[in-house]
Amino acid sequence: MLSCPWAKCLEEIGSNPRLLALGQFLWKKNPKGLSEWTIDLDKLKQQVWGDEVTPTSTVRSLVSDFRKHLEAHNVPLTISVHDTRDKRRVRCTLPKDFKFDLS
């Protein structure tokens, strides 16, 4: 199993349940440790907020807060939220040369 590249960040945000749920869910949805992966936006909303009707602007705001924590720990994860009729997803990308530990 691959170690989460932002495990230290998760420790730091542990007191914020939504940020923690977001960070854990993003990595859980990448079991093979790929540099790019996609998550269904509604599944993310369900996991983090407990519903699928949370506004996408709220998701984007939480993602922005999460990215600030990642940047502080030098984790170059790009997270993009897409919410159109045919594309309701969250795309995560790490640089191909980004190394993280295997355990």
From TrEMBL:
Source species, domain of life: Bacteria
The protein, known as: Uncharacterized protein
Naturally occurring in which organism (per UniProt): Rhodopirellula sallentina SM41
Upper taxonomic lineage: Bacteria, Pseudomonadati, Planctomycetota, Planctomycetia, Pirellulales
